[in-house]
Amino acid sequence: MIDPISRPDRFAAGAAPEPRTLDELVQARIDGRLSRRGLLRRAVALGFAAPVIGVMLHAAGDVAAAAPARQDKQPIPVTGPTKPAGEAQTGGTVTVGSNSEPDTLHPYITQLVAASDVIWGMMDGLFTYDSEQKLAPRLATAYSISDDGLTYTFTLREGVSFHNGDAFTGEDVVNSWKIIMNPDFGAFNQNGWDKIDDITVDGSTVTMRTTEVYAPFLSYVADTRICPSSAIAKGVDVFKQEFGRAPIGTGPFTFGEWRAKEQITLDKFDGYWGEPAHLDRIIYRIVPDDNTLMVQLRTGEVQACGSGAGIPPTRVDEALGFDTIDVLQHATLGWNHIDLKNVDFIRMTKVRQALDFATPSKDIIEKLLKGRALPSVADQAPGSWAFDPDIQPRPYDLEQAKQLLAEAGLTPGDGGVLQGKIPTDDPQVGDGEVKPFEIELWFVSGNTDNERIAQVVAQSWNSLGVKTTVKNQDISTIWGPEGYQFTPQMTGALFGWFNGNDPTDAYYWNSSQIPSTPTGSGGNLPAYFHHYNFQEEIDKLTTAGDATTDQEARKQIYFQIQELLHEEVPVIFIDWEVAFPGVAKNIGGFWPSAFNYLLWNAGEWYLT
Amino acid sequence: MTVSTASGAPPADRAALAGLAPDLTARKPRGPWRLALERLRRARLALLGLVVLLALCLAALFAPVLAPYGENEIDLFNITALPSAEHVLGTDDLGRDELTRLLYGGRVSLMVGIAAALLSAGVGIGVGAAAGYYGGWIDAALMRFVDVMLAFPAIFLLLILFSMRGSSVGGVILFLGLFSWMWLARIIRGEFLSLKQRDFAEAARAVGVPDGRIILRHLLPNVIAAIVVSTTLNMAYAMLSEAALSFLGFGVPPDVPTWGNMLNAARPYYTVQPQLAIAPGLTLTVAVLAINFVGDGLRDALDPHRS
Amino acid sequence: MLRFTIRRLLGAIPLLLGVSVLSFAFMQLAPGGPDALFARNARMTTAQLEQIRHNMGLDRPVPEQLLVWIGNLLRGDLGMSYAQYRPVSQVIGDVFPNTVVLMAAGLTISLAASLGFGILAARNPYGVFDNVTSFFSYFGLAMPVFWFGLMLQLLFAVHLGWLPSAGMYSAAGGGGLGDLLRHLALPAFTIAIGSIAGWSRYVRSSTLEQFGQDYVRTARAKGLAEQRVVRGHVLRNALIPFVTVVAIDAPLYLTGAVLTETVFSWPGMGRLFYDSLTVRDYPVLMGTLMLGAALIVAGNLIADLVYGVLDPRISLR
Predict the structure, then answer these.
(1) How many CB atoms neighbour CB B68 within 10 A?
(2) Same domain, A573 and A585
């Protein structure tokens, strides 16, 4: 933006300096001090190459138009499927843009959201989560749970056939379970399925007997895509490779073609059990670069994006200016936080609270993320039934932070860096050796938002006398056995977790999820060296959460957990990500959400 | 430059080095006036290059004095601001002053270039001299090693190394240096093979002058032109490579300002804030251009075939 | 000739073996491992993790892994991609042709341009044309290729909208030759710019050298038309060294492709490599390295052979 105040000042200061640099040239052109030809002549004299001059001319001409001016328009919150004016048509093609390419289209081994986005358009589960976080019937029409909470009975839909012509039966469910649990196959997610003891099929009734009461069971098992027995029967390797490149499901679209690093084509399936798809074809286009995505949304080459690859929050203002698309908005299940390793001073509750007071989350959300994220105080997503709306985030308050640190026994030492005695037996009492408060703040290389957030947080913590160094590594190293979480230094790490549809959070906090060795599994990494001072309490709560099936009772448990987390600050909660899907103004039925994947209802999409 | 940033030795590097002993244009018979004119023009370009290079070095050196803001002064209220009186080149994605970053960036970019080029010259001289002077199995082994190193697609390897081991300014210097010495080694070896047969070297050996002294005092001065030219070219190569690696996100750590890192940071915004991408890219181009001019000038000055 | 070819081919084998052993050693430097990502994924148990490591062969000792890898390599088996769960040869085979298209287009542009500019400049050395081309050559050699690409993209795709900014074909209704050429224009020119600059200077100086030779003066003295002098004598002799330079440089386009493909989202080897880096897909990374090395070695070999064929003074033993 051209600053209206500074401009007259500059003229008042007398003759503007002779433009020497590129940007001075451009500025001079904008100010009207240079003619187009004058700009050209000087640019050539300064030795700029031809393409650069071209860019300059355009920069000078377009600079006001291209500036991310404050838009009056705001993103439209998603409340239901899009309903454009005009008659719904049958047929047509929609191109969906995504910044990442699926690793494989195999529902049991993919690790990427992008893959699930595509798979959800081709394959069904017994149920699927709709965009209001409710299980909607697909291959099953109904389910019931026995009184003891151990047996699940599903009634299967009749007359369903796979894309290859096979009829869908209960045997497909049994075989899917068997292959998921086959160790040679190496399914990525066995959750829920590993609780099944036995499955019996009786006509259109499938009965699953489980070994323990496990509240998240349905959220995993009912939402798993079911594969045809004939494909599974081809053996572990063939099933993994062939199916992953060309999956066969029961959904409204069949797999068409996959051109590596370019696009995946899905075609309408005429034998679909439900109402046939309105569209003839969906093209899932891989657009790895955000600039390109923006250009293609503007030109209409890409007509929809969302889920793992929506419009980047920092570019929403720009996208709101496009007349080709509507920018939508919905909450997500992803939370960004600083994971504080539970060692030395960080074991003290007051120190963790102080760091929270000294983290300008509000500024980060409003300035850095341009208001395109939600504040976060604990681990349940706003919009989810388990979310406690009453907890307020700590304000940014350096004075309180200082006081808490002083109460924890930390005083300024060499070069203003705080120092004090580290706790030994009692985590709240500093009685060990004297150490300076030096902390490493890690983020995953390539995550530009987190890189910026880390630098802002580091600046604030440093101002308190907590010596903070920003560090980064690629994702595999950071999570590997030599990652930050297994070094003895005090560390914070900035990254995001994604919750599942079920609020279960034992994975993050329960002591059973502390990795036993640096190569072990589990999500409770900060407690690797020392259990939390509230470990017993959180263990009890998270275990109870998993074993309680009544939703209202569970909700109370998760409210308690959220209060505890806010009080103890095992991690500093930064923000809940907000997703910004974009969709062409003539696409109806488009209904993205945090609880499913982009193409979950692609059969209902239509063009007007 | 497509190929040079990517490969162990850029084509121009090789073309220039190949042209070293007999410069192809130099053999063309032309009038003395023409020759003088040409050399004057080249000298003028070299001088211009030198002046620009010195200016860039001084600007980098005195960055703390010259820069209007602090190196990492974050201003969240002024993110990606367009050029204004307060911020001549605007601000980046953290509200840091772009001109300030450009000045500080020169420090690291130029240092990477100089240090990596010196390292590569050191290794190249060592390997080339050892192979050429001692010959035999030492020569054979070293030259096979050179072949293997030359067969590596260097940028692939550097990307793997930095992405996995993380990176630091020192690491970038080290590995860029270690992947760019091979052509110099080959040239020095070739020259040494013939030089050591010459009378003065034979004579020195006959009277018992130690090998090290013969190499340093008698043989190396003969290849000084190749070393100087190769080093200036490698400096340009290292600076471009650093920028390329940093641009891909695997070079110098992102909080360290370098021209490559600035380009990387500008990438998400370059369509709306072109100056964030143009300024560092242009500065880098000018710096490399200056180095190449100086290199050409030095070649002319040192070339024994053109007296 | 045949013996020479065979000898050089055999010589390439230990070279590639050396490259593969060194590459493998570099891979071992990596902390963590390809399985590190699994370990930090929610819903993965320790037992499952062990099983995955076993399936990947990561529980075997490193020397054994190396031997297995080299053994497979000799049989032409590059292993299975960790990220895509299919053979590396398939993964690379999917995108390699796209990179070949880009490289071929870039080579064509830069050969045509460098021959044209180089010879024309040599016709009238230190003339206006020569000075202008040499000025731009200096620029071409000094510009970071990705930056040049970004500038082209900014100007022609974003601001002017004349050409597509990314990809190889349009999403819907694409696929024709015209569509391809439109997408190809910017990346091909970007990848070519460095060698246009370097090669045209090379062509210029080697052509100049020929003009100075006695036989040219003789031919001119005989009254041969300038065209015939150029075509019949000068070009042939000037081109011999040029061909070798091209053969040596051309494989390096593969590495230039990493940057160009990243800027223009071209679906080729460079993108594959970059994506594989971020997910630590070792087998694909190793496969790409080996393919790159093989191309470089092949380029050198071709340079040797062409030199022998074109220049009768060199006898091949």
Answers:
(1) 12
(2) no
Pick from C29, C106, C289: CB nearest B164: C29
Query: The tokens of B60 are what?
Result: 């980098």
Question: Looking at residue C31, what is its pLDDT?
Answer: 60
With CA atoms as reference, the chain B residue closest to C140 would be B1
pTM (2 decimals)? Answer: 0.81
**C81 Cβ neighbours under 8 A, 6+ residues apart:** C87, C88, C91, C276, C281, C283, C284
Measured in angstroms, the CA of A199 and the nearest CA of chain B are apart by: 45
Q: Give percent of chain A with pLDDT exceeding 90.
A: 61
When mean pLDDT is compared over A102-106, B78-82, C6-10, C237-241, the highest value belongs to A102-106
Residues 430-449 of A with CB under 8 A from C: 446
Q: Same structural domain for residues A219 and A86?
A: no
- Per residue in A415-451, pLDDT (tens digit) is 889 999 999 989 999 889 999 999 999 988 777 788 8
Q: What pLDDT sits at residue B163? A: 77
Angle at B167 between CA B166 and CA B171, to 5 degrees: 130
Question: Measured between CB atoms, which of C36, C84, C155 is closest to A476?
Answer: C36
Q: CA C317, CA C314: separation in Å to the nearest integer?
A: 9
Give percent of chain A above pLDDT 70. 88
pLDDT of residue A394 exceeding 90, the answer is: yes
For chain C, which chains pass the contact test of at least 3 CB pairs under 8 Å? A, B
Q: Which helix (H) or strand (E) segment is A333 a member of?
A: strand A325-340
- Same-domain check for residues A595 and A554: no
Identify whether A246 is part of a domain: no
Least confident range from B120-129, B187-196, C245-254: namely C245-254
Name the architecture of domain B47-65+89-301.
Answer: Orthogonal Bundle (1.10)
The first and second tokens of residue C42, run together, are: 């929610």
Distance CA A422, CA A530 (A): 13
Chain B: list its partners (3+ Cβ pairs within 8 Å).
A, C
Statement to judge: residues A172 and A291 lie in one domain: no
Return the partners of chain A (3 or more C-beta pairs < 8 Å): B, C
Range with lowest mean pLDDT among A21-30, A339-348, C139-148: A21-30
Per residue in A518-570, pLDDT tens?
A: 877 778 889 999 999 999 999 999 999 999 988 899 999 999 999 999 999 99
- Out of C136, C151, C265, the one facing A287 most closely (by C-beta) is C265
pLDDT per position as a tens digit, C225-235: 777 777 667 77
ipTM, 2 decimals? 0.82
Residues of B in contact with A494 (CB under 8 A): none
Is residue A499 included in any domain, yes or no? yes
Q: Is the pLDDT of residue B3 over 50?
A: no
Instruction: Check CB contact under 8 Å for C194 and B2.
Output: yes
**8 A C-beta contact, residue B295 and residue B233:** yes
Contact by Cβ (8 Å): B300, B123 = no
Domain that includes residue A225, residue range: 123-241
Structural domains in chain C, CATH included, are: 2-74 (no CATH), 94-310 (1.10.3720.10)
Closest of A246, A24, A136, A180 to residue A591, by C-alpha: A136
Q: Locate the domains of chain B by residue range.
A: 47-65+89-301
> Between B72, B164, B282, which is nearest A22 by CB?
B282
